[in-house]
# Entry
Amino acid sequence: MNLAGYWHTAMVRKVVDAADRRYLSQPVQTPIALKKLLATVVVLPLLAYAVLCLLFVTNQRHMLYFPTPDIAHTVATELRLEFGGESLKIWHHPRATGKAMLYFGGNAESVASSVAHLRTAFPGHALFVMNYRGYGGSSGEPSEPALVDDARALFDYVQQRYSDVGVVGRSLGSGVAMQLAADRPVTKLALVTPFDSIATIIEDRFWFLPVSILLRDKFDSAKHAKDVESPVLLILAENDEIVTRDSSMALLRAFGEHNAEAVVLANEGHNSIAGSAEYLSALRDFFAE
# Structure
């Protein structure tokens, strides 16, 4: 290569290198269309998820509680318990005995319909059947703190009149009964289709939400198991379609070395168990011991 050719090649390289440096030193300009695409793919789904979480937070108690209407009763008398600024309707079947039984029903259970079965199961007990706040003629709105406080108030009322007070809690009522038995001298405690925590039940259905963070009323029964001193019976339904067997057994394990046992009623579901003769027999035998 002659001198002129060498000089020409060197100059071309300098010009190209200078152009490359100027290009690399300039900020990369993201096209507007790409920015809109990123917003659509990333931001909008996050916004939608946040809205979904907000809807869960604001509507969770409407999804958790299913109040029942006020109905008349022919085999029990109505007792009014005034507590916390609310008027609570209690179905009461009196008996001349020193024993009483408190019953806390399931979420959508019309507890008035349970009185006749309970009378059969507990012929030696006076009955007190709670209508939760907002349920069956009781005033107020249901929440975990309110329901548990109301249960304590009912227990205190009954204990002034009866020396032996047993408790039965079914489904949602098992969460109420657990917390009551954890800080009151309950003689015996029966839990029907119980769960370790409502949060675990809801997590199975809303697996895509941070339920443990968002849920207000967790009814964490397993947490209170260590504080229960009375004998405990768990009655499970073999075909329970609401509360999983794992959840019920987790509650049983939470009692540890405590005097707790479980029975499983064959061919029964979460709701059908209430009409089972084996169910009433299990209750009667447990409280008769």
In short: Residues 32-64 form the longest helix (33 residues). DSSP finds ten helices and eight strands in the chain. The chain has two domains: 3-62, 70-288. Residues 9 and 55 are 69 Å apart (CA to CA).
